[in-house]
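Why do we bother with a discrete structure alphabet at all? Because it lets us treat a fold like text: something you can write down, compare, and reason about line by line. To make this less abstract, here is a complete entry for Transporter. Read it the way you would read a sentence in a foreign language you are learning: slowly, and without expecting to understand everything at once.
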Amino acid sequence: MIGQILATLLPVFLIAGSGAAYGRFRTPDIRSLNTLNMELFVPLLVFAVLADRQAPLAEYAWLASAAALVVLGSGLVLWPVVKWLGLDSKVFLPPMMFNNSGNMGVPLLVLAFGPEALPAAVVVFIVEMLLHFSVGLYMLDPRTSLWRMLRMPIVAASVAGLLVNVGGVALPGWLLEAMHMLGGVCIPLMLFALGVRLLEIDFSDWRTGLLGAVLCPLSGLVIALPLMWLLPLNPLQTAVLLVFAALPPAVLNYLVAEQYKLAPHKVASLVLIGNLGSLIVMPLILAATFAWIQPPP
């Protein structure tokens, strides 16, 4: 089991560490890299996975529902905690709800459970992203238009991929292969960008960051564990759900907070200390998953 965990986590940490090392001696334009990734490579991967007729998307309906319940339920669970501690809900709750299913989740799930986990990883990633750019933006500003979400390349790619799959359209193999190759760039690039972002950790508000590092995976697991028994998920989907529920806050929370001018330094502490905390949380979750659920290799 230790070998499985190391084989899963070491590539993740090595690639993120390479980003941190490069960012330490250089000043890469990481925002432009992230823009390129989110506007080109990630949408291509999403479309290629969803449009591939070999991926029976109907089998992932319950997983998508479970992922949505984890995102929304974690916010409901933590709402009274936030009020009791006197924290700003607009600052604290979104990072707890919207996790790092892109930068860390997709690579981690593929490394842990093999290429067959890619469709499930993409499904939970899409659910998290769509909720982030609808419910999440509404939480920050109720006047936010949904048109902003519909213009996102990843949303357009999701809709197009679903239509192609459901409509039974057979795309040429060479086209899907090219999209898979270009989309595959996004996985290591996500981890590399995460490593560069880790250099921006602000320890001045470490208490809030540490609190978030504990509550983010805990609240997700509180919702996910009952769903394991209530929903008809197969072993692989159950494993994906548990790892998804325990992921740290998404880096995108910081970018959104910066745009809306909602204490971006506090959000940076929540996001980046939470991602550091995953060095402890993820090995434990993977150990429990490999020992308990034992998804197919």
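What the structure line is telling us, in plain words: Residues 11 and 280 are 16 Å apart (CA to CA). The chain has 14 helices and no strands.
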